[in-house]
Amino acid sequence: MNLLTSLLRPAIAEAVPTPMGFTDTVSVSLSLSSGNVLEDGDSNLVYTFARTGSLANALTVKYKISGTATIADYAGATPGGYKTLVFAPGSSVSTLTLDPRADAIVEKDDTISLSLLRGAGYTIQTMGAVTGTILNDDNADIELDQLARPNLPPGSPFRYVIVTSEVRPGYQAGIQTYNRFVNAVAKDEDSLVRNVAGNWKAIASYHGANAIDNTKTNWATQADLEGLPLYRIDGVKVADSYRDLWDGSLDAPINLTEKGYFLPENTLVWTGTNAIGMGGDNIDIITRKKHWIGKKNVPGGAQANLIGSGLADVGVSSAVDYQWVNSFTATAYPATMENPLYAVSSVQFA
């Protein structure tokens, strides 16, 4: 070793442990206070974001919300991706509180999943989704334990009507989406109408598909200008005919589900339909079917807010006037809400 090397060696060794620009690594984790909360309980889902490392500066963290729950099921945030949460300078913890919304609908439990996304200035410690569950706390009082046949002469044709026990959002495209939904609900193993012959159709209107045509309840196409009677599954008559169904005065509300229990008073039901079964203006049925039905000026008889749109019209399950199919509110409801649907069976015979 020469003299020059010997003189420089201590300086070189002293510089190695503290390189220029060295900073602590910031790591972010995500946890949940309680995995399950009641829909109408006192507890909320509280998601805790925690960071380790340097706390000197504010930090923006990216995350997403997924799961089966929709905006109708909780408050405090909305489902979707690329959301942000900010840590204040000096803070190691930040929280997001999601408050379940209470309703009176018997439904499946819903999940809310939060996942951290990559971003600038931090690494992710919690790699998987953190999931909380909103537990349904609405109990169904079973009113019926078997399907009832209407009191009609043997061989008489009729149709059943139900409101589904299951709920769904109203923004998906295509009338067949809703037909498949109500048919699957009706054919479920717990359904009292699972063995009813034929398929079920949604009493709902979508672009190019009016409820009155989708369900084949357009009385103007019937030879007698009336059509068949419709019954609930407890044998109670809802309407004498198709014409009676759409004239604004039901004999009984369509509030009995396929499982044999009644929905709570004033439950909202997706229809996307005006008062006479149309998605468009009443004039459609006049010009296309050449039968004046005398309802052009009824409330809710104009253009409807169709299902499959951002906003959709609803009916009220306990109503027996026009509001059974159109609640006539000033504005339609966000289609991200989850509501049941009405459904009508194929033709049956007493």
Strand content: 25-35%
User: In CATH, what is the class of the largest domain?
Assistant: Alpha Beta
The low-confidence parts are: 3-23, 281-301
What is the number of beta strands? 20
Helix/strand order, N-terminal first? HEEEEEEEEEEEHEHEEHEHEEEEE
Going by CATH, what is the homologous superfamily of the largest domain?
Mannose-Binding Protein A, subunit A
Please state the structural category: alpha+beta
Helix content range: 10-25%
How many DSSP H or I helices? 5
In the CATH hierarchy, the third-tier topology of the largest domain is known as Mannose-Binding Protein A, Chain A
Shape: elongated
Distance between the termini: 111 Å
Reported CATH architecture of the largest domain = Roll
Written description of the protein model:
There is one protein chain. Strands 11, 12, 13, 14, 19 and 20 form a six-stranded mixed sheet that branches. Strands 5-7-3-1-9 form a five-stranded mixed sheet, with no helix packed on it. 38% of the residues are buried. It has two domains: 23-135, Immunoglobulin-like, CATH 2.60.40.2030; 140-350, Roll (Mannose-Binding Protein A, Chain A), CATH 3.10.100.10. The protein has helices spanning 3-15, 175-186, 211-214, 242-245, 283-289, and strands spanning 27-32, 36-38, 45-52, 59-66, 74-75, 80-87, 93-100, 110-117, 123-124, 130-135, 157-163, 201-202, 230-231, 237-239, 268-270, 311-312, 314-316, 333-334, 342-344, 348-349. Strand 13 and strand 14 form a beta hairpin. The longest helix is centred in the first third of the chain and has 13 residues, at 3-15. With 350 residues, it is of the alpha+beta class.
